[in-house]
Amino acid sequence: MAYLSMGEAHRRVAEYLHRLSDAVSSQDVNSLNHLFSVSSNSPFLLSFADALNLLQDTNRLVKLADKSSQLGEIPLHLLTCFQNYRLGNLVDSYHAFEKFANAFIQEFRNWESAWALEALYVIAYELRILAERADRELASSGKSPEKLKGAGSFLMKVFGVLAGKGPKRVGALYVTCQLFKIYFKLGTVHLCRSVIRSIETARIFDFEEFPRRDKVTYMYYTGRLEVLNENFSAADRKLSYALEHCNPLRENNIRMILKYLIPVKLSIGILPSDWLLQRHNLVEYRDVVLALRRGDLRLLRQAVQEHEDRFLRSGVYLVLEKLELQVYQRLIKKIYIIQKQKDPSKAHQVKLEVIVKALKWLQLDMDVDEVECIISNLIYKDLIKGYFAHKSKVAVLSKQDPFPKLTYKNAV
Amino acid sequence: MATEDKSQTATEEVKVDLFEDDDEFEEFEINEEWDDKEEGTEGQQWEDDWDDDDVTDDFSLQLKRELESQPDKK
Predict the structure, then answer these.
(1) Are residues A16 and A48 in contact, defined by beta-carbon separation less than 8 angstroms?
(2) Which cellular component terms (GO) are annotated to the entry (chain A) (predicted)?
């Protein structure tokens, strides 16, 4: 740190406090956003934090700049937060920020207009980020990381402040999205439910009224939840919404949406085009798609196994595993068509041993009983229309539409 | 999922590391604006009409050869 005189340090702190009280009295939300963005590490904020650490006694500083008393405890906690943040005391920094946030929402509640809504967004975001960093500090010193969980509880309170009839209600979805990020990170996604219920059923909210950015994020996360719960039709609707409305320049976000939307679409036999996979570098799905096209069970298993880690982590592994039935359907269809070319009158009778043979060719060792079991399953799931001649070990396919198209009803 | 509540406290310590969400959606800027995608400027995204009766691809031809390799024993 370059040499900093006491006088200069005083000047910097006074400047920050002056800007803060100015921003509030003139309702200048952009300045406020900047002043609250602790983790942005902007040069102005860093030099301000250095000054704080030279002067140390924040209490006295705040009193000196008494003009800001209209802001209650806001300045004091903010100063403590910056001071600790700069020193790398991330837990203390988080504590101070939470106190500041608490003081801020007391004021915010009393303001009738929603002029400071964006500043509240910044606070919600910073709270989450600072909590994550504090938890990393706690974990590395062997303590239980609990700040992010605490940030979640705090943001529920913020949600409550916004969930009213007034113009501030459009901010509720932003806070919801921050909560989703916390719950997904902590693996406590069941906590999403109550806030979703509120967003989707409370009369004060009109989904279309929320900012687009929040609607897209909301649909991404609720879509992922639907995938986890195997509600594929709802998952398709939500993730497709997110895909359609996402900023096209946000390549990473589009890719993330597709990581979940593709398995959902595959589950009802809709394939992503090669263009789509290449464009978004989702090559892990390439062989899965090829396996479906071919009816190549071996390739499907290889493809799923090869990226097992990735698929398990994103929670789509089970969805992909279930594609096996579709691949069997496709393989049997091919056998049926090949038979038909040879002898149309007998094509609808598929001997089990023919299927066993085809599987053996794919290096999958299955006996007639196992194949029988699979066919029963295919018939049960409505992937094949027909019946089973148990004695002669033949699957007799319906003459009309023996291989029905999939819908979300039989995808599970 | 309701059962997760009970196990939560016990496993909490490890969770922050284990449950890192790799697919955390990137934050949009607070004032980020964009136009909706224009129709037709993008390539084709999805195919739902691929399940045809064509068996002339390599895989099907090999399958056919395999099935015909020995006459079926009755």
Answers:
(1) yes
(2) transcription export complex 2
